[in-house]
Write a structure and sequence with these properties.
Elements: H1 13-17, H2 21-38, H3 44-51, H4 55-68, H5 85-97, H6 102-114, H7 137-142, H8 147-154, H9 157-163, E1 180-187, E2 192-194, E3 199-201, E4 203-210, E5 215-223, H10 237-250, E6 258-262, H11 271-280, E7 285-289, H12 315-327, H13 346-362, E8 375-376, H14 377-393, H15 425-429, H16 433-436
Parallel strand pairs: 1-6, 2-8, 6-7
Antiparallel strand pairs: 1-4, 2-3, 4-5
């Protein structure tokens, strides 16, 4: 038994990649768990507790893996017959052509069988005219793509997302720590000055929010510096990679799986890097994209539709950006939410700051004595922003959805109305009844 290696051989990678993502994760999880049993790292009973199944199930899967390798761990459902990848490719292409109805496509499969027309995967199949079990109506229905995939294939990605795709998280219930990480960029609404560059600039940020806690726990800032050619230096993909490296190296990812929710704009991740992360973590780190993929029909040869963004894709992080702007509104150099709402004094404020920057350049020895109407980026703005984010993270008065349902709320007690010493519910219940009943 110790000679058995539970892994996906290179020559099986194409077949394995055709499985549903949740099946691939399940198979890899069982490969790791049963591999520990085979090499004596843990017992079958421990694996049963880890996977939330009975000991009999672990033994059955171990026997199946010994007999068929990773294929023995593929989920099986009553009434389902395995179909070859060649047939599934042909079958799904056929479903795409029947834009309104899947039943008509299944009828064509049966008609081709009765007329002895070639069907991929069933060439030379014995027993004609008896229908193979794999081509039964029930089995063909079982191998239909999801409603989302069918809508994407037949109409387009935009319609698929609108009707069946997730627009935002409706509840925190069911999530786990680091199950979803949202990445996005945002431009600050305050002008700041940089003494070393002698520039007045706005500040761009890129941040990461953890979905369950609602905590934007990681972020990075970058001033929008003016180049010599007149263009502005802004955030790019390299900054996104740095932020992601910081998050994964210093915080990690969940052993139950982590989905990176990114966009197709600035806070994006190249597909090859996303694939590398997924492969190296055996499917535990996956990536979901939003943004301008909006209107594209997933049938080969189709024309592109008109693209459209999906701002609801990262709604929790977008809401945080609004909170951030509100909290930063008291800082000097406020631009307002748009040009129409820009404070009238901003023009004079920026002119005064520009003049003081020139004066400071001429007289560097008096820089510390100049009272700028804006914050200095390094020494003042970043410190103020850090304090604002800490205040947001430490708030106890909020209305985050699902907070109570996730058991994130506690009841604390104090012995007198004016006391600042609080005790937990357990400590309160441990007190004598007379003390609990004291007014």
């Amino acid at each position: 038994m110790s000679t058995l290696t539970l892994s996906i051989p290179e020559h099986d990678s194409n077949e394995f990649s055709r499985l549903k993502p949740r099946w691939r994760k399940e198979i890899l999880a069982w490969c790791d768990a049963l591999g520990n049993v085979l090499h004596g790292h843990c017992t079958a009973a421990a694996v049963a507790a880890q996977m939330g199944v009975s000991l009999a199930t672990v033994k059955r899967k171990l026997a199946a893996a010994q007999l068929r390798g990773w294929r023995g761990l593929e989920p099986k459902y009553k009434g389902s017959k395995q179909l070859s990848p060649a047939f599934l490719d042909w079958y799904h292409a056929l479903l795409e052509t029947y834009q309104r109805n899947s039943r008509a496509a299944i009828r064509e499969v049966h008609d081709r069988w009765m007329k002895r027309k070639p069907i991929p995967g069933f060439e030379g199949h014995p027993g004609w005219p008896n229908l193979p079990a794999g081509l039964s109506e029930r089995n063909l229905y079982h191998h239909l793509p999801s409603k989302f995939a069918l809508k994407v294939m037949r109409v387009g990605l935009g319609k698929g997302i609108a009707k069946h795709g997730p627009k935002t998280f409706s509840t925190r219930e069911g999530l786990w720590p680091f199950s979803h990480l949202f990445f996005d960029d945002v431009d600050g609404e305050n002008f700041v000055h940089l003494l070393d560059r002698k520039q007045l600039v706005r500040v761009s940020e890129m941040g990461c929010m953890e979905a369950l806690s609602g905590d934007r726990f990681a972020y990075g800032c970058h001033p929008q510096l003016k180049r010599t050619d007149g263009t502005t230096e802004r955030l790019g993909e390299s900054k996104m990679r740095l932020l992601l490296a910081h998050v994964l190296y210093n915080f990690g990812y969940s052993p139950r799986g982590t989905e990176l929710v990114v966009e197709h704009g600035t806070a994006t991740l190249r597909k090859n890097i996303a694939k590398l992360l997924e492969d190296r973590t055996r499917g535990l780190i996956t990536t979901r994209y939003s943004g301008m993929t909006g209107k594209e029909q997933a049938v080969g040869g189709m024309f592109f539709g008109r693209g459209g963004g999906n701002p609801r894709h990262k709604a929790p992080l977008e809401s945080f950006h609004n909170l951030k702007h509100n909290e930063c509104a008291a800082l000097p150099g406020q631009t307002g939410k748009d040009v129409a709402n820009r404070p009238e004094q901003l023009h004079g404020l920026l002119a005064r700051a520009e003049a003081l920057l020139v004066f400071a350049e001429l007289r560097p020895e008096i820089q510390d004595l100049i009272q700028f109407p804006t914050l200095e980026y390094h020494s003042e703005y970043l410190r103020a922003l850090r304090e604002i984010y800490h205040r947001i993270a430490m708030r106890t008065q909020h209305k985050l959805e699902g907070w109570a349902a996730c058991n994130f709320m506690t009841t604390d007690y104090r012995l007198t109305p004016d006391s600042n010493e609080w005790i937990t519910r357990g400590q309160f219940l441990a007190m004598p009844p007379a003390a609990q009943a004291a007014p």
